[in-house]
Amino acid sequence: xxxxxxxxxxxxxxxxxxxxxxxxxxxxxxxxxxxxxxxxxxxxxxxxxxxxxxxxxxxxxxxxxxxxxxxxxxxxxxxxxxxxxxxxxxxxxxxxxxxxxxxxxxxxxxxxxxxxxxxxxxxxxxxxxxxxxxxxxxxxxxxxxxxxxxxxxxxxxxxxxxxxxxxxxxxxxxxxxxxxxxxxxxxxxxxxxxxxxxxxxxxxxxxxxxxxxxxxxxxxxxxxxxxxxxxxxxxxxxxxxxxxxxxxxxxxxxxxxxxxxxxxxxxxxxxxxxxxxxxxxxxxxxxxxxxxxxxxxxxxxxxxxxx
Amino acid sequence: xxxxxxxxxxxxxxxxxxxxxxxxxxxxxxxxxxxxxxxxxxxxxxxxxxxxxxxxxxxxxxxxxxxxxxxxxxxxxxxxxxxxxxxxxxxxxxxxxxxxxxxxxxxxxxxxxxxxxxxxxxxxxxxxxxxxxxxxxxxxxxxxxxxxxxxxxxxxxxxxxxxxxxxxxxxxxxxxxxxxxxxxxxxxxxxxxxxxxxxxxxxxxxxxxxxxxxxxxxxxxxxxxxxxxxxxxxxxxxxxxxxxxxxxxxxxxxxxxxxxxxxxxxxxxxxx
Lengths: 307, 272
Prior knowledge:
The complex is a heterodimer. Chain A is mainly alpha-helical. Chain A has helices spanning 18-48, 54-59, 68-75, 79-109, 115-121, 124-127, 130-140, 147-154, 168-196, 200-208, 213-240, 245-250, 262-272, 276-306. Chain A contains 14 helices and no strands. Chains A and B meet through helix 1, helix 4, helix 5, helix 6 and helix 7 of A and helix 1, helix 2, helix 3, helix 4 and helix 5 of B. Chain B: It comes from Kitasatospora cathayae.
């Protein structure tokens, strides 16, 4: 976080009603955030303890269910697999995005003709609507007629074609691939920004000491980039764990549930089975998971940096 | 004179173009596919040698109305987000309000809330209020992405406005509202454009709220149009892909128009 610039202590005399106008600036946004984040979170917690089904919408009657929704969700036979899929999807996407993002950021740090333009164009995968790019990927990955298998066959890497969307393990790999592609630009942009903040004279000094590119990366770039790396990874996990669009569009959670994550399950329970109680329990697990991760990671990182 | 971390020559440009071509291949493929003749052959050629616009004709006929819906909703959401975020960002950056840090932390925490949670609650509430299948309902829901984002971007920019500028106006007798309207807002023009561009795109790209909060086709954003096309029209791939291209146009246009602001602010926003 940047340090706060020094501020004058608001020396103007307090006029009548002034205190009130100050709050007037914040009130609309605060009201909105309370209605559209505060209320849903609270409502979701309440719903997760209720037997809230499609009849509840008509009768307004949702009996208290205690912990039954959580018990049902956690003890479901599909849950361990859903949890594992979520972990693989998240870890795979975040690591893939980060590795490629860092590679691109380091590459674009060199100054060369058209570098800036190419770097901006790289943002495109991130700016496109996920539904549009997801649809394209679905078509590209089609086992029979997709261009990916056509290329692989052309290179004689496979004769029968890879069942990208129909094989259970390949489908998970496919959604990780697509989600990685979507997230690379964001990682590149932030890591590039972090690289720009490293003072160039450090590299000059290292060079004079005879450090090669690898040594300067290990002793200058990586340690100084660490805080930015932390932020990127935390944001990556927080964003990825709740991804729905990519999976719904590319595989729809299939084949045979191979790409169902906690997020898609929560959608499935709430909006396909209209069991809002269980859906809410599932999505509350998701919030807790991502918050716990964020807190643990940031704390571990702070400790690592102060040591 | 060689400045670390190094200068690259035309070779770097060449490598960069190749890397970018690989990364952007899906975008090319989307455009290529949209220009192929109709039919249920998914393959198509490598190049649109005989570009066929029938996919676009079909897409415009079926999805034209959805494009307008998306435009209305995205514009509405961008305007609402800016209207709510700008004063709040100014207040958080300038006034010494108690709890400023808590509010900022809360805004960052909203990033961890999955849209499905918001959709769960809104579905029930909208059902009672009659906001399902309405432009207003989508504008309000889509702004859940835009408002926090705009506050973060505008806050970090407005904090960099020199205190003296504002003090000078205050000394001249301008009230807080006047200072905000006549000094802060004009100075923040670029940040407002950036935040506006992004909030527009966030709403334009929304899929989940469209999926959950619309149940008929009266108010149907283009993203949902693509998705439903995918279910029903797989034998008209060129039309599906033409719709995907049209849904991608704002992103491409905004990238070109607002390029410099955009790249700078992505990094700036994450720098929080």
